[in-house]
Amino acid sequence: MAHDLVLADHRSPAFPGASVVPGLVVDAGEAVVQRYVEFFAAQIRNANTRAAYVRAASDFFGWCGRHGLALAAIGPMHVAVWVESLGQAGLSAPSVKQRLAAIRMLFDWLVVGQVVPHNPAAAVHGPKHSVAKGKTRMPTREEAKALLAAIPTDGVVGLRDRALIGTLFYTFARVGAATAMRVGDYYPVGRRWWVRLREKGGRYHEMPCHHALQDWLDAYLAAAGIEADTRGPLFRTAAGRTGRLTAAAMTQPDVYRMIGRRATAAGVATRIGCHSWRARGITAYLENGGLLEHAQAMAGHASARTTKLYDRRGEQVSLDEVERITL
């Protein structure tokens, strides 16, 4: 998908497969430009990751260009100074580490292509960053119940919203995996129904459907009349305020706005988003005696440490202890 790349540098000529490339790369020759564009087209499959890496490369080579550096002259010291400047500009440690990872991976690609003799970012360390608890805001159990109960189910849009939020909650799905679901990704295995999620890296994640989610999906599909369209998107956009659905899939911004509207209508005080339901689901599972390793498998996490970031059981313990402080 190289045609999706937009690299900000007004001096750069258009190049087949990309809108523009940095002038510093263009100055190194057409073969280097080709190799540069191929990195984003061939190595980065996730669209969000690609966009982030494009921004990182644009920023880095723009910085190098402003300091009069040619591609072959870039060394570890230059990368280190650039990394330091990102922190001084107020960029968070995770964002700085992501940008450094992008430059390191890009130079690995250029080294393999014999564009440069070594990777100047290989020896550069990013800022230290340790996370013990995730920052995702999560609704309380009462808020989650109130929001779901407040969704009107006398129309297909309300049934869609309840089924979509239920999918995020009961399957621990990322919003991107939920919006990518097709009707055929809800399917029977024996007497039980299952859901199939498309996770990062093109992986498929399948799991049994919770009985409550099954009821909500059945009600939504019956009202929408899309059961036979197995290759069509499962969660579809609404046609304005007509109460009818289109054939187009909802996007992450669509889901975020929908959750915001539903939260406001239900009087939910916590500022929540799409990922809030993933945290709420994992926490509820663990509160009810679930095992961390099973939560990890259900969430599709490669590491249990990632799953642990969604475990908010300790917050209630902390609150109970704070309330012991009295005069």
From TrEMBL:
Record flagged with keyword tRNA-binding: no
Q: List GO molecular-function terms, semicolon-separated.
A: DNA binding
Query: In what residue span(s) does the Core-binding (CB) domain sit?
Result: 27-111
Q: Which UniProt keywords apply?
A: DNA integration, DNA recombination, DNA-binding
- For whether the record's keyword set contains DNA-binding, the answer is yes
Q: Report the InterPro entries cross-referenced here.
A: CB (IPR044068), DNA_brk_join_enz (IPR011010), Integrase-like_cat_sf (IPR013762), Integrase_catalytic (IPR002104), Integrase_recombinase_N (IPR010998), Integrase_SAM-like_N (IPR004107), Tyrosine_recombinase_XerCD (IPR050090)
- Which GO BP terms sit in this record? DNA integration; DNA recombination
| Pfam family, any one | Phage_integrase
- Tell me the ranges covered by the Tyr recombinase domain, including all copies: 134-324
Q: Which family does it belong to?
A: Belongs to the 'phage' integrase family.
Protein name as catalogued = Tyrosine-type recombinase/integrase
Q: Which organism is it from?
A: Rhodovastum atsumiense
Could you read off the lineage of the organism from its UniProt record? Bacteria, Pseudomonadati, Pseudomonadota, Alphaproteobacteria, Acetobacterales
